[in-house]
Task: structure prediction
Amino acid sequence: MVHRIDWMVKVTLLLIAGFLGIIAVRPLVEPETKALAQAARFDHVTIVSPVFLYKGEQGLLVLDKRSANVWFIPRRNEVFATPIFLTKLPFEKLDQAPQ
Result:
């Protein structure tokens, strides 16, 4: 009886190790490629605040570094709606001497 339990434990551990080996060796090329492509596509966008209230709606506050535009993206029922333009930041005034 003891040998049968010992044999079953060894077979179970061997199967677990085999499945873990298959998972470790399996190539995960496609998800990484998609993530890298999205990161390169939107590398100019910075999330200023992940939770922001604007006119009673909750959403994201986002800065476009190329144009210095600030956008609010409302979140309704776990879905993001159309972005709303808020303002353009005057980055060119940063080069001026303080008064």
Helices lie at 2-25, 29-41.
